[in-house]
Specification:
By secondary structure, the protein is mainly beta. 2% of the residues lie in helices and 34% in strands.
């Protein structure tokens, strides 16, 4: 969906620290119905990271996060902004990733459910992500076929409240972009989400097409509910459904 760069053995000799990349900015001509992005800029293509895992490219370990006024960079201590790169350098920080998620429901390209907001419990900031730009046109007229696909840069080991502008997709797939050369991943790095579904019939979480049993709840007179045990943040798919407020909480690693 969106390309990041995760560098392990790449080297850069006598490199200008302001020339590692030139990050694009959203195209303002895409605003509006005839622009194909609606009321806010299409953001998916600017939500990527460049990470140096062993310091051979940047000269130190770290992460580059694109675009000025990026709420993640501004609130996560990445203060070194480069105008030449249109990006922030976050020295020593490697706890950033890209969340890729999309609607798998039948109305994935016809029902507007975006933009999507992610609000961090720990820092209180909010990122706003738009869907893909209109992809089917009749001349210069859009045919209202926008895919419910999203890419959002985020900080790891955080809990986020995920909010769609309308009812969330009835079927939603989420994954963290692969950051390591192998497929084992890094279970010590996790993200937890809360997602509210108004009046659902049932909610199920699947991992590799297998249903993951939720954490059992305490139940007090059908008015309040709590967890019998804490979330296992090293286990992808650890989840609980708090039926009193119609909210599912789940972990992705």
């Amino acid at each position: 969906m969106v390309g990041s760069a995760y560098l392990y053995t790449s080297k850069c000799t006598n490199c200008d620290s302001d020339s590692y990349l030139k990050a694009p900015s959203p195209n303002p001509s895409f605003l509006g119905w005839f622009g194909g992005c609606g009321d806010i800029l299409c953001t998916g293509r600017i939500n990527f990271v460049v990470q140096d895992w062993n310091g051979t490219f940047f000269g130190q370990k770290g992460t580059i996060i694109p675009n000025q006024n990026n709420p993640i960079a501004l609130n996560e201590g990445c203060s070194a902004y480069s105008t030449a790169m249109n990006a922030y350098m976050c020295p020593t920080r490697q706890d950033f990733a890209v969340l890729e998620y999309e609607s798998k429901a039948a109305d994935f390209q016809t029902r507007i459910m975006w933009p999507v907001s992610l609000t961090s419990d720990q820092n209180g900031y909010t990122t706003v992500t738009n869907a893909w730009r209109e992809w089917e046109w009749f001349g210069n007229e859009p045919q209202n076929k926008r895919m419910g696909r999203f890419a959002t840069t985020l900080a790891l080991n955080r809990t986020y409240n995920m909010t769609f502008v309308s009812e969330p997709p009835h079927k939603l797939a989420l994954m963290l972009q692969q950051r390591t050369p192998d497929t084992a991943g890094q279970p010590e790095n996790w993200v937890q989400f809360r997602l509210h579904y108004p009046r659902p019939n049932s909610i199920r979480l699947r991992l590799n097409n297998q249903i993951v049993d939720p954490i059992l709840l305490t139940d007090i007179n059908h008015t309040t509910s709590g967890l019998r045990e804490g979330f296992n943040t090293s286990k992808c798919g650890s989840n609980a459904y708090l039926y009193t407020n119609y909210t599912i909480s789940f972990v992705i690693t």
